User: Fold this.
Amino acid sequence: GAGVSQSPSNKVTEKGKDVELRCDPISGHTALYWYRQSLGQGLEFLIYFQGNSAPDKSGLPSDRFSAERTGGSVSTLTIQRTQQEDSAVYLCASSLWSRQLVTQYFGPGTRLTVL
Amino acid sequence: GESVGLHLPTLSVQEGDNSIINCAYSNSASDYFIWYKQESGKGPQFIIDIRSNMDKRQGQRVTVLLNKTVKHLSLQIAATQPGDSAVYFCAEGDYDKVIFGPGTSLSVIP
Assistant:
């Protein structure tokens, strides 16, 4: 499809396990963002990638969270030693050229439940 | 710190009426403001945006108003329909970072 896709759509894991969440941005979009959304809450910025520049990791809540973007396209958000407070919907967005204040296009999200 | 917030967390309107969702922002240097709509189980979807050099912008059934004097942003939806039921987020942007407000839940009464 032409939109942002994320996988899996749902992930249930046990406390202490590691999880990987995947984002496929819109082809040609150079900027990619990860957000976290807790139930009934707004969007919490996590990390931002722009082209080959160093990512803006200022929103990552702890060192258990990391993300990479390979080949300027697909991104993976990894959460190590998951905790129950990590349960949330993780949203990915991409945009064509961030310096032009253009629209971010969101994927459907991955709902993570940590038991 | 800087923040974007909404006056009303929930809003119920009668089908056919106009809806107004309000938003306050605190960063006077923000150059770009966006409204997103998020339906249940989906990611946010862009509705309309406005730059700081404008005070009004219209789309299809939606109008965004920006009052920089009081740092206030509003989204007006004309002839609200059941399909408009969703959570609406305002956001302020400064180049490559967008800060989202907490959201307002809009319920349309048939």
User: Anything to note?
Assistant: Residues 88 and 96 of chain A are 26 Å apart (CA to CA). Chain A touches chain B at residues 4, 31, 35, 41-43, 45, 48, 50, 56, 91, 93, 98-99, 101, 103-109 (CB under 8 Å). The two ends of chain A are 33 Å apart (CA to CA).
